[in-house]
Amino acid sequence: MQSTIALESSVLVLNKFFAAVHIVNAKRAFAMLCKESAEVVSIDDGQYNSYDFTSWVDVSAFKAEYGLSDDDPYESIKTFSLEVRVPKIIRLVVYDKLPKATVKFNRKNIFARDKNRCQYCGKKVPTSELSLDHVIPRTQGGTSNWKNIVCACTNCNKHKGGRRPEEAGMKLICKPVKPNHCPLIQLKLGSNKYNSWKQFLNNAYWSAPLE
Fold this sequence. Notes:
The strands form 3 sheets. A 5-stranded mixed β-sheet has the order 2-1-7-3-4. Strands 5-6 form a two-stranded antiparallel sheet. It has helices spanning 2-6, 26-34, 53-65, 107-113, 154-160, 183-189, 198-201, 204-207, and strands at residues 10-14, 20-25, 38-44, 47-51, 76-78, 83-85, 89-92, 130-134, 149-153. The chain is of the alpha+beta class.
């Protein structure tokens, strides 16, 4: 069970020039490492080290055998024969492009933008207990876009029904807007688990406003 959860951990992907490209889960990251299309980037004592999959397995085994700890702890995947650390950063060995500066309009980014909080009562709840609400209901001409979709808990969504907030005696905590930056990135950077990402995201691409 623990290994299954670890495989869903987020891994930052860099292009070959060490510029951030996107985020994948650990399962996808290991697939790229096994295909030799990527390598692990590890920051040890302030220095950058790169490892292919085989050498990363060796490093993981060595540190596990001797109980060596890190300032930035890793999760691990355990099998019958080995224990492999889940990398936090990988670098594509060929890809040199940057993604287009746009934020996809999807459920994951809406949840990240609203930080998993109901935008009516402010309660923070698990994603499974959140729904997406049209501020202006579709029956009243509301459309599905960044400025008209917010996270809502089950109780608030049920109370609001097919009405506008003011019609239901409710008020939005924050006005919904289109994010200027990838909300998932910003959410991850709020956790100490992803401290090693920060130096790769502190550049013009991630701080520039979207057109």
